[in-house]
């Protein structure tokens, strides 16, 4: 609609013929368009997109240049350390700590979330208090408490509170630094996972439970078959975040002198002077690799659980890239 | 005629708001009973009380002579365990106002879920039966679709098939067409009409007065938690005796 467009034809001129017959009137836009060879609409061009892309690409090239040409990065030393057995051992320990605390943390989180959603006020309050407490204590402080547990309790026992105990352990024997790390990470993880699971469950409409119970489905089945699969869709992105945080959070356990990935990097840097930068790069790249793997798993899990929630499942990145190239004409 | 549903002295309050105020109500087996009334009159609450989705404060409900949601124990009515209530509900079909199929399950999975779990029907048999039911409601070609890929009217017909899959002795409909646009209302009402012709016992809360007049055998008009008037549709809907009924019907035309 340009400003030069003529006034719209009046109501009486219902047929186009009378307009054409009046020869003295100038040609209307309609007439001009009618004469066009093709009526195909040319899409709006976006020149600034090209400019912005060029600017960003130049900046990226500069960054790549800065990384590759600065000898202080010591890329040869990086290559040496990247697959050293000591580094790989640290990497495996990081994976173990992440895996175990993720499993225990998630299981604990599900139990805590169900407790908070239960109608039993005692369960509700206990779960709330647990989450409140463990979200309040910094992970590093919690780990140090657990590592020094012998100063608090020399023996740990299973039994009746304030009554007789059945089994007794020396706290030192029971809690290796490895177990301290898994315990601390799991306790901390459970508090956060609980809120993520709860948010997923309350995101499912109440009417779903009502429909399930009107059909007479047993309570457990209502949750397992109806609520949790739908809640999982909301849980995955938030929990993937949490898991990636946990992966990197394991680096905190180095203060209990446990040599996971970061612990190895840190201790090797103190032995091999002048190699701190390549060693930090080794740690960084490994964390990036692991996070990337988790992100890929997250993507495909999200796709799986979007069944029924979307009318059509979104394309994978590869499918999207291919169609993007096709529309910009590069692939043709 | 046998009594399918009997409600006696039903009372339900939310805070100070008395939603059901001593409601007595009977539905005959093999008949369609329509419950009509203004919004907030308690008609949905009454329907939900019949399968104990809404527990009563006092009063009781029987379906074919069996107390629902409660039992007689030492001269008192005591609430049943959740498990027992769920078992009773699988004899009573319920179709909701809002379209609440399970969105992550396909149409056929929605329909077979309850029979397979609560009645231990073998899966293959349940699927065969689900196909029959879906054919009956005109959705034979939508078996593997997900609910969100269907129109509102189609979803509501799946919901009816889901309720029928339990072979219930009674089906309760809570305003089954009020979430649908006018064009889709017809296809759902057709399915209910077919069920009525087959002699299914149904209680329908509805705003479709024309439909109630055509299909119902018995009409109950409720206002402010009380049954104002009931009887055959030609009486209640055409020549109401009560002023309040006349006023309500007058507003609808």
Automatic annotation (TrEMBL), chain A:
Q: Where in the cell is it found?
A: Cell membrane
Q: What ranges does the record give for the region Disordered, renumbered to this chain?
A: 1-29
**Organism, as annotated:** Actinokineospora terrae
Q: Which residues form the ABC transmembrane type-1 domain?
A: 91-298
Main localization of the protein described in the UniProt heading: membrane
Polar residues: compositionally biased ranges: 1-14
A single GO cellular-component term on record: ATP-binding cassette (ABC) transporter complex
InterPro entries named among the record's database cross-references: AA_ABC_transptr_permease_3TM (IPR010065), ArtM/GltK/GlnP/TcyL/YhdX-like (IPR043429), MetI-like (IPR000515), MetI-like_sf (IPR035906)
Segments crossing the lipid bilayer:
48-67, 87-115, 127-154, 174-194, 234-256, 276-301
GO MF terms, alphabetically ordered: transmembrane transporter activity
Entry keywords, A to Z: Cell membrane, Membrane, Transmembrane, Transmembrane helix, Transport
- Recorded topology in the membrane: Multi-pass membrane protein
Specify whether Cell membrane is a keyword of the entry: yes
The UniProt similarity line reads: Belongs to the binding-protein-dependent transport system permease family.
Question: What name does UniProt use for this protein?
Answer: Amino acid ABC transporter membrane protein, PAAT family (TC 3.A.1.3.-)
Which CDD domains would you find in this protein's record? TM_PBP2
Q: Does the keyword Cell membrane apply?
A: yes
GO terms, biological process: amino acid transport
TrEMBL record, chain B:
Q: Name one GO cellular component term.
A: plasma membrane
Domain of life where this protein originates: Bacteria
Its keywords, alphabetically, are:
ATP-binding, Cell membrane, Membrane, Nucleotide-binding, Transport
Give compartment(s): Cell membrane
| One example GO MF annotation | ABC-type amino acid transporter activity
Record Pfam families: ABC_tran
SUPFAM superfamilies from the entry?
P-loop containing nucleoside triphosphate hydrolases
The ABC transporter domain extends over: 5-249
Q: What is this protein called?
A: Polar amino acid transport system ATP-binding protein
Species of provenance: Actinokineospora terrae
């Amino acid at each position: 609609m340009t400003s030069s467009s003529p006034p719209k034809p009046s109501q009486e001129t219902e047929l186009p013929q009378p307009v054409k017959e009046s020869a003295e009137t100038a040609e209307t836009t309609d007439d001009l368009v009618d004469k066009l060879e093709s009526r195909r609409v040319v899409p709006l061009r976006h020149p600034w997109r090209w400019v912005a892309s060029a600017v960003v690409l130049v900046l990226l090239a500069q960054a790549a240049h800065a990384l590759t040409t600065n000898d202080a990065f010591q890329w040869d030393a990086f290559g040496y350390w990247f697959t050293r057995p000591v580094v790989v051992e640290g990497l495996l320990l990081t994976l173990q700590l992440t895996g175990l605390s993720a499993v225990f943390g998630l299981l604990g989180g599900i139990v805590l979330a169900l407790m908070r959603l239960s109608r039993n006020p005692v369960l509700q309050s206990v779960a709330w208090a647990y989450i409140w407490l463990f979200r309040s204590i910094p992970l590093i402080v919690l780990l140090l408490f657990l590592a020094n547990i012998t100063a608090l309790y020399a023996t740990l026992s299973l039994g009746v509170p304030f009554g007789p105990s059945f089994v007794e352990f020396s706290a030192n024997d029971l809690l290796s630094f490895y177990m301290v790390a898994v315990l601390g990470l799991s306790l901390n993880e459970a508090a956060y996972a609980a809120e993520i699971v709860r948010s997923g469950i309350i995101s499912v409409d109440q009417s779903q439970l009502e429909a399930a119970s009107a059909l007479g489905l047993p309570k457990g089945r209502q949750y397992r078959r109806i609520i949790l699969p739908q809640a999982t869709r909301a849980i995955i992105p938030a929990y993937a975040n949490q898991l990636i945080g946990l992966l990197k959070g394991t680096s905190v356990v180095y203060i209990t002198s446990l040599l996971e990935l970061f612990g190895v990097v840190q201790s090797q840097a103190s032995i091999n002077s002048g190699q701190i930068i390549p060693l930090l790069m080794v740690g960084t790249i490994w964390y990036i690799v692991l996070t990337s793997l988790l992100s890929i798993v997250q993507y495909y899990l999200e796709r799986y659980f979007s069944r029924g929630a979307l009318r059509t499942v979104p394309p994978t990145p590869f499918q999207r890239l291919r169609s993007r190239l096709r529309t910009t004409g590069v692939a043709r | 005629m046998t009594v399918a549903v009997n409600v006696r002295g039903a009372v339900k309050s939310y805070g100070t708001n008395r939603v059901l105020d001593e409601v007595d109500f009977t539905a005959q087996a093999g008949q369609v009973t329509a419950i009509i009334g203004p919004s907030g009159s308690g008609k949905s609450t009454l329907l939900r009380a019949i399968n104990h989705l809404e527990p009563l404060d006092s009063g009781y409900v029987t379906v074919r002579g069996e107390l629902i949601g409660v039992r007689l124990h030492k001269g008192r009515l005591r609430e049943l365990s959740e498990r027992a209530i769920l078992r009773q509900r699988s004899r009573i079909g319920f179709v909701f106002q809002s379209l609440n199929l399970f969105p992550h399950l396909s149409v056929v999975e929605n329909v077979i879920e309850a029979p397979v779990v609560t009645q231990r029907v073998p899966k293959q048999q349940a699927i065969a039966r689900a196909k029959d039911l879906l054919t009956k409601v005109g959705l034979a070609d939508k078996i593997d679709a997900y609910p969100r890929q269907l129109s509102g009217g189609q979803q509501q017909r799946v919901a009816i098939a889901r309720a029928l899959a339990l072979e219930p002795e009674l089906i309760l409909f809570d305003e089954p067409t009020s979430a649908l646009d006018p064009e889709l209302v017809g296809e759902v009402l057709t399915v209910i009409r077919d069920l009525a012709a087959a002699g299914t016992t149904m209680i329908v809360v509805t705003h479709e007065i024309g439909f109630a007049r055509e299909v119902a055998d018995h009409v109950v008009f409720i206002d402010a938690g009380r049954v104002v008037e009931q009887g055959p549709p030609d009486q209640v809907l055409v020549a109401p005796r009560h002023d309040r009924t006349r006023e309500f019907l007058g507003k609808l035309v």
